[in-house]
Amino acid sequence: VNHEELCTLADQHFGGLPSAPKDGVEVAMEPAVFTGGDYRVKFNSDDTAHMAVAFPTASWTSEFAFPLMLMQNILGSYDRAHGLGKNHASQLCQDIAENELALSVNTFNTCYKDTGLFGVYAVTPDNKVDDTMWYVMNNLVRMVHEVSDAEVDRAKVSLKATMLMSLDGNNNVAEDIGRSLLNYGRRMTPAEIFSRIDAVSTADVRATASKFFNDQDLAIAAVGGIHELPDYTWFRRHTHWLRY
Length: 244
Known about the structure:
Number of helices: 9
Helix content: 40-55%
């Protein structure tokens, strides 16, 4: 592909797109307001439960974006079929494996323009829902108090490796450039990203967890055999530790 020809075609077809709203009228973007929520679809005939718990967090451009990425790696993901068992580096995954609770657990961290969503999605047998949710909530709140330097350092290495592997191929690089332009207004190079990751300290991770998890409202969604799933007040009560 000839670069000059590509630029000429892009300018021809997209160069005339408006960069500002018509007549100069802009829509006021009110800050997102989160109030918590609980949505459940129960099937008594289903022997598997699918559940997600999530907290509102921060946007792509927030100072909390990179600590949240590290927190996602600290909690990690677990799949019983992979065979790692209790040899996972993640404390959450170790707890799940040692007690033979969930079929799979995935930590997600989604950022938007003005807010974000951080949480854990779990698939469990219907008779292990209560115990699974206890370990999930305990490990989320644990990052407010007990996350270690070793966990943070491991998460940094894992996050860097994941980002480098995601740039394998021209399509992936082009997608990364487009995402970076949409989120930051410019291309953020891997070197700059690594620098920002290295600048995050254990204290930053704890402060971020405290801001978004500690005694905060959350959202819950569940479907399947969820007769063991605790009510919303139980989850809300487990967003903090009583430490004297």
